[in-house]
Design brief:
- The structure is a single chain.
- This protein has 127 residues and is mainly β.
- It has one domain.
- Helices cover 9% and strands 39% of the residues.
- The protein has a five-stranded mixed sheet. It has a two-stranded antiparallel sheet with strand order 5-6.
- It is globular and about 45 Å long.
- It starts with a strand and ends in a 5-residue tail after the last helix.
- Mean pLDDT is 87; it is low at 116-121.
């Protein structure tokens, strides 16, 4: 069964919190991709949550431009999973794809705030 540690950042307060998700709650997250938004009540958080990244049990990072959930060797020049690059340097690195699978250990996420002007435009009586 899947178990995840979800680090949820709140941009308004600048703080983050760690939530551990097990069994059936974790199964609801399997199959989601980086950038997808889901309802936070599934994991006990008020509001909507967007997945921004993560890593697997061995520490290999997830990367948005690699599809699927498997580990792959990718030629990198910059970005997630590649650091201290000299000019023109490329390196083949092992990274994980952008889909959440049971092998994922940590998920990074951010709270998504809805625009108050948008909700007022949809429901003028709320203002």
């Amino acid at each position: 069964m899947a178990n995840f540690k979800i680090i949820i950042s709140d941009s308004t307060t600048g703080k983050s919190s760690v939530t551990e998700v097990k069994e059936s709650q974790a199964q609801a997250l399997v199959g989601l991709k980086i950038g997808e938004v889901f309802d936070g009540t599934m994991i006990g958080v008020n509001g909507k949550v967007m997945i921004t990244g993560g890593s697997d049990k061995a520490g290999f990072p997830m990367r948005t431009d690699v599809s699927g959930g498997a580990k792959k060797y990718v030629l990198l020049t910059k970005g997630v999973g590649f650091s201290n690059a000299e000019r023109g340097q490329k390196r083949r690195k092992l990274i994980r794809g952008n889909t959440v699978t049971e092998e994922i250990y940590q998920l990074n996420a951010v709270l998504v705030r809805e625009d108050k002007t948008k909700s007022v435009a949809e429901n003028p009586k709320a203002a």
